[in-house]
Amino acid sequence: MMEPSELPNRSVITIGELVVDWIATKKSADWDEPDTFLRSAGGNAANVAHALSRLGTNARLVAKVGDDLHANYLFSGLAAAGIDTTFVSRTSSFATAQCYVLTDQFDENLFYNWPKPNACHQLTVADLSDQLFDGAVALHATGISLTMEPRSSAVLEAMKRARKANLLVSFDAGFPTGEGAKARDKALEAMGLAHMIKVNLPELYYWLGEVEPCSDTAQLTQYAQMLRSQTGAQVVLLTLGANGSIIASSDSYFAAPVKVDTLAAVGAGDAYVAFVLSRLASGASLDLNWPQALTSDYFDWADIARSANAAGALATRTISASLGLPTLSEIEQLLK
Question: Which helix (H) or strand (E) covers residue 89, if one does?
Fold first, then answer.
């Protein structure tokens, strides 16, 4: 393990999912049909780490893999991307997680995770080294990572320690609704620990409960502010797919969509939140008062929302969640 002085400074930590994606190259909703798959690094934590690195921000990944050829493939790709894997550990007791992905004729994605359980689920509190937060400015976690023990306890503990260490805590509240009350309660606990929460529209409706679905920007802005108030977060990022996005802080900011030729929507949300994290990390000091800065004019939220839309749009250029992630220069060129 690296000494604290050797760890990259101003890093954003991503924790949780690291898997091998197998993505069907032709559209189908039938698992018996596809016979050609694209192999790619995947998992929410890995996707955000890759996106951060492409944007020029130091990314530090926390996850667990098996001791097999799939893990070797993932480590090779992470190293090539310049991602800090100091805190990615191996286990010989479980296989590296894999995810098979189909896209149907309506561009909806179908996922099959294998095996169960797998190494990705085995991240423990003991894997959270005292060095983990050295030089870091933010930590990002996702609801997907809270569905299985012991990983869910490790992720929540990392979020608690990050708050105590004065890091920005970010949480993607995407959540498989069929996982049961215990997993839902853990996601609610995570939202209570987060300074910043990212949701898409179906997720917003799920967490708010009984609200009337709508397409009105003003009403959706109110809904985003409702989630912010209910959770105690300083910022809510609401992505609306092809309809843009809304950032709700002490004020609200709507950004119109940016159009590109799209192959698949996998990874757009990860690219969006990674851009926001990259901008916040680059503009923050290590002793920044995050609750105060996030609700003041310290950050240009209107510009962040516009550029994050471009990042999310560019991520849809390929069927892989990681291969199409944009660089800062590509985002700037698109916005011109």
Answer: strand 84-91
